[in-house]
Amino acid sequence: MNALALKGPYRAAARLHRRALWALPVLAAVSLAVVIGLRVWAAPGSDAAPYSGYGFLRISMEYAGRGLLFLPALVGAFVAGPLIAREWESGTWRLALTQSTGPKAWLGAKVLLAAATAGLGSAALIGIYRIGWTRVADTHRLTWADPGAYEASGPVLVGYCLLAVALGALVGQLVRRTLAAMAVTGLLTGAVMLALGSLRWSVLPVKTTTMPLSGNLAQQAPVSAFITDTGLITGSGERLPEYACWERTRSLRDCPADMNITAWYTEFHPASHYWPTQLIETSIALALAALALYAAFRLVRTDRA
After folding, report:
1. CB-hemisphere CA count at 13 Å for 274?
2. Which of left, alpha, beta for 148 (phi over 0: left; psi -120 to 50: alpha)?
3. Residues 267 and 279 both lie in one domain
4. Nearest-5° angle of CA 4, CA 169, CA 201?
5. Separation CA 298–CA 135 (nearest Å)
6. Are residues 167 and 45 in the same domain?
7. Which residue, 7, 125, 185, 285, shows the most beta carbons closer than 10 Å to its own?
């Protein structure tokens, strides 16, 4: 941190939490070494068996993607607890304000350092993840739309980490108890991620294709597509579940005449929706972060007790 020539409250915050600030860079360095090693072991042409280099890389990327889903919650918990609430709980924030430091500067130093570390660290982890993921992408649970792989491979993870910093700054001041603030922020961050994730594939319109009952369903959408719904269409245009004929004939394609089934339909998102969806979701996360930060700075200005 000395190389950055930090001054005033920034220097104090960096010195106080220097070990935690180095956690993400160390994690990134270790992750890079591991992923490069696995990627070399899983070079093109290597065996795709579960215990081969390719198999270990695929399993590692699956668990790494799921693990990175917890990164924003961990970031938010740290900001809310050790960074903010602990100083309220112990009263050390009063000492900081006696060192020619205003409340906004005190909070701003902590938020800026946390945001810079979380933003740069998460961006580095995304890049490292993509080094391994591109070798095994489009396999089971590792497609571009799968939970874990989707968040870990794009800028939305950075957006959620910055949102977590903002939520931590706000909750830490409101709760003022270290453990309670950590728990509340972690849960709140997770809830926001779940809510936005549930709406993720409702932003862009799906594409719809149809084919006769005798057609090959595997060819109804591109291999790389994320299929959201498949079913049957009647002569009147009504849509029925794909198993509607099965319930009566024990066959997906043998449909009773009275059902008047005319075709299959499939709704899907093409792979080209990946980046627009990532950018839209990231923008929403950053907008929420801006609102939370505004509230946090308003709170620190009006409440010093």
Report:
1. 17
2. left
3. no
4. 100
5. 47
6. yes
7. 185
Q: Identity (one letter) of the amino acid at 255?
A: C
Residue 252: enclosing H or E segment and its boundaries?
none
Asked if residue 212 and residue 190 are part of one domain, the reply reads: no
Residue 286 corresponds to which tokens in the numbers above?
């950053």
Q: Which residues pair with 234 in a beta bridge?
A: 261
Tokens describing residue 281 = 């979701």
Per residue in 79-134, pLDDT (tens digit) is: 999 999 988 887 776 666 656 567 788 888 889 989 999 999 999 999 999 999 99
User: 116 and 13 in one domain?
Assistant: yes
Burial 135-144 (b: 16+ CB within 10 A, else e): bbbebeebbb
> What number of CA atoms fall less than 13 Å from residue 140's CA on the CB side?
3
For the segment 225-257, what is each residue's pLDDT rounded down to a tens digit?
Answer: 999 999 999 999 999 999 999 988 988 888 999
Are residue 117 and residue 263 in the same domain, yes or no? no
Residues in the chain: 305
- Between CA 34 and CA 132 the distance in angstroms is 10
Helix (H) or strand (E) holding 29: helix 23-41
